[in-house]
């Protein structure tokens, strides 16, 4: 029976409060909330960006066609000819630019507040970066495929089919360096300034690193500087299936710069995620 107050009315019974053990624990999604749906959304979002399409499909192919009628392209170079050497170089430049642009999208997301919204979800920062890396690989693969398609239609590049396929896959693997660079710059500078830095910067690094001009045509002083640039190592690695030459210091250069950009991106990401 309910207790009676002096006025003769029943007293209210206090509501029962659930025990702390009765509150269900929040489930953490597997793989840090990484999922195919998020990956598909990110990829479609990049494909709807007109500037990305220009970087991915138009610019690399246009560069290959621009230099496509120069003399000396039929000269032998490794297992193929000079045209094949240039084709791999242009594919690397296009994929690097595309991957860096994809990675740098974190700058726009931070400016729009999207990164802050993601921090309120179970999405783990590593899963977020992994998603960006896979999208960058997909976009880089499109750039490489477009350059190779133009090369096939142009008909001047000559190399064995195995070399052609191997060079494409190695080039795609090398673009991870520039995806990490894009993320690093995206966390380092605000908004659209990321691509204003990456665009001219990658063009300059490509000239210095022997992507547009063979490094042995440079003066000795410029050559010594080129050995330390991020483009030199990956360019040598990307062309190694064709040239059958890969100096040890080119491998050290490629691995070293990849480590620098990944660590830089992780450092800036940790600084950014520390703010709620």
Automatic annotation (TrEMBL):
Gene Ontology molecular function, alphabetical: ABC-type transporter activity
Name of this protein: ABC-2 type transport system permease protein
Coiled coil: none
Localization in the cell: Membrane
GO biological process, one term: response to antibiotic
Membrane-topology descriptor: Multi-pass membrane protein
Organism lineage string: Bacteria, Bacillati, Actinomycetota, Actinomycetes, Propionibacteriales
Biased composition (Low complexity): 1-20
């Amino acid at each position: 029976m309910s207790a009676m107050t002096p006025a003769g009315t029943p007293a209210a019974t206090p509501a029962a409060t659930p025990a702390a053990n009765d509150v269900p624990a929040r489930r953490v999604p597997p793989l840090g909330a990484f999922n195919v749906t998020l990956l598909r959304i990110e990829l479609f979002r990049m494909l709807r960006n007109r500037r990305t399409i220009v970087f991915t499909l138009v610019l690399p192919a246009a560069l290959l066609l621009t230099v496509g009628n120069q003399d000396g392209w039929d000269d032998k170079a490794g297992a193929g000819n000079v045209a094949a050497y240039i084709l791999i170089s242009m594919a690397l430049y296009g994929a690097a630019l595309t991957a860096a642009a994809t990675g740098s999208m974190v700058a726009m997301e931070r400016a729009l507040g999207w990164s802050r919204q993601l921090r309120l979800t179970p999405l783990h920062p590593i899963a977020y970066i992994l998603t960006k890396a896979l999208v960058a690989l997909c976009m880089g693969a499109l750039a490489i495929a477009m350059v190779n398609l133009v090369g096939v239609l142009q008909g001047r590049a000559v190399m064995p089919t195995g070399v052609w396929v191997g060079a494409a896959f190695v080039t795609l693997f090398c673009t991870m360096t520039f995806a990490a660079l894009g993320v690093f710059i995206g966390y380092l500078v605000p908004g659209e300034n990321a691509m204003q830095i990456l665009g001219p910067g990658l063009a300059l690094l490509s000239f210095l690193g022997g992507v547009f001009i063979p490094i042995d045509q440079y003066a000795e002083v410029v050559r010594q500087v080129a050995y330390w640039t991020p483009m030199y190592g990956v360019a040598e690695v990307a062309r190694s299936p064709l040239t059958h030459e890969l100096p040890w210091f080119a491998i050290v250069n490629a691995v070293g710069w990849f480590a620098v950009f990944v660590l830089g991106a992780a450092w800036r990401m940790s600084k950014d995620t520390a703010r709620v």
